[in-house]
Amino acid sequence: MTRAQADAFCGSPETVYHRVSRIIPWVIFGITGLLLAALWRTIPAEIPTHYDFSGNVTSSGSKWTLLVLLGLFALMNLLMLIIC
Prior knowledge:
alpha+beta, two-stranded antiparallel sheet, 62% helix
């Protein structure tokens, strides 16, 4: 991939938008992690993980699932940084 193709795909690194789009996901990740740590004791042991179209819970998981989701969010952000 040439530099011109990378700039067309990821945007020019000199723009304010590009800088902000690299920072905002990590700010959201940090806030989510802090909220999860602060509220960990109040989260029930079993949480709903899937609903049907009627709004009924069809599957539940442990609260540790939230940490897995937070880790996946961080992994996706890292992959986007590597790609761009």
